[in-house]
């Protein structure tokens, strides 16, 4: 299948790894069907002018930079480490992790200055070097392509600098988290040439509109509850909804139903206050998409 000149937007995503399933899930929530992607390197959507290129995550920034792929979904850590010349269009809210300095459990570090003149093994030498420079520190950096966590036990390095999600791997290797170097999440990136292509840019803007509606919905919830009329004004002040809440009369003239879209974590902060004001039948529902 020749996809070079078919006019579709070309999106590079990780073929296999922690970002793959979340990237596909995001596309499906955007109404973009991707089928049988697990066994293929290139897949075209049947519902949107988009071709999916499944690549190694380390290769994605370069493919986008060179215009082979128009856009890509990849971790911020990879973008920064590769020093890719790409445009970051949107942080996507998944694949969150930290690059952290970690030390053997028996070593004591009271301040960041304690790593001065130490040897640090890492797969992220550029990110680490930038951090050391910002902190006005000096250390010997040893670049390791994999299994960084074993280097202190082998006497190769004093510390490591690596991605930490849950910290389980560090504990298994008797290492402890020490200092945060870089925070990362998945991001949508774009090549400069795509932004100059009128047709591709039109498709990209539609994709961005859909992605942003999904992200807005994920961070919001639909709240429904019954409220005494006399408490309505106070309750309206408690729920800073995206739009003015909807107020619906009920059979009981002293009660109204209040519907509002609120930030996802807000209810748990105000639920006791709502109850004190007489709110009842409180429902909090997920939202799949929301177009503002």
Would you write up a description of this structure?
The protein has a 6-stranded mixed sheet. It has 3 domains: 9-93 and 186-217, D-Maltodextrin-Binding Protein, domain 2, CATH 3.40.190; 97-184, D-Maltodextrin-Binding Protein, domain 2 (3-Layer(aba) Sandwich); 221-286, Alpha-Beta Plaits. It is built from 9 helices and 15 strands. With 292 residues, it is α/β, with parallel strands linked by helices. The chain has helices at residues 20-29, 60-65, 76-82, 125-134, 168-172, 192-196, 198-218, 232-238, 267-276; strands at residues 9-14, 42-44, 50-55, 71-75, 87-91, 97-104, 119-122, 140-143, 159-164, 175-184, 186-190, 220-228, 246-249, 255-263, 280-286. The chain is flat and about 75 Å long.
């Amino acid at each position: 299948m020749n996809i070079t000149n078919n006019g579709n937007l070309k999106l590079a995503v990780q073929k296999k790894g922690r970002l793959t399933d979340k990237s596909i899930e995001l596309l499906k929530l955007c109404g973009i069907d991707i089928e049988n992607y697990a066994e293929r390197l290139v897949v075209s959507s049947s519902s949107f002018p988009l071709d999916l290129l499944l690549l190694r995550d380390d290769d994605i920034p370069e493919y986008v930079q060179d215009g082979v792929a128009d856009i890509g979904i990849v971790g911020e850590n990879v973008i920064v480490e590769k020093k890719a010349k790409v445009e970051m269009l949107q942080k996507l809210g998944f694949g969150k992790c930290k690059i952290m300095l970690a030390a053997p459990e028996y070593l004591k570090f009271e301040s960041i200055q304690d790593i001065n003149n130490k040897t640090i093994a890492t797969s992220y030498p550029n990110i680490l070097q930038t951090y050391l420079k910002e902190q006005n520190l000096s250390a010997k950096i040893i670049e390791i392509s994999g299994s960084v966590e074993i280097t202190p036990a082998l006497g190769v390095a004093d510390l490591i600098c690596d991605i930490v999600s849950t910290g389980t791997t560090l504990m298994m290797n008797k290492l402890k988290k020490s200092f945060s170097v870089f925070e990362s999440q998945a991001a949508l990136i774009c090549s400069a040439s795509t932004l100059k292509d009128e047709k591709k840019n039109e498709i990209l803007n539609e994709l961005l509109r859909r992605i942003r509606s999904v992200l807005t919905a994920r961070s919001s919830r639909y709240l429904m509850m019954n409220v005494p009329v006399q408490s309505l004004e106070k309750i309206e002040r408690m729920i800073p909804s995206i739009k003015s809440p909807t107020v619906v009369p009920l059979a009981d003239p002293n009660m109204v139903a209040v519907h509002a879209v609120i930030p996802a974590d807000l209810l748990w902060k105000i639920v006791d206050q709502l109850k004190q004001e007489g709110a009842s039948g409180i429902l909090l529902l997920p939202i799949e998409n929301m177009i503002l």
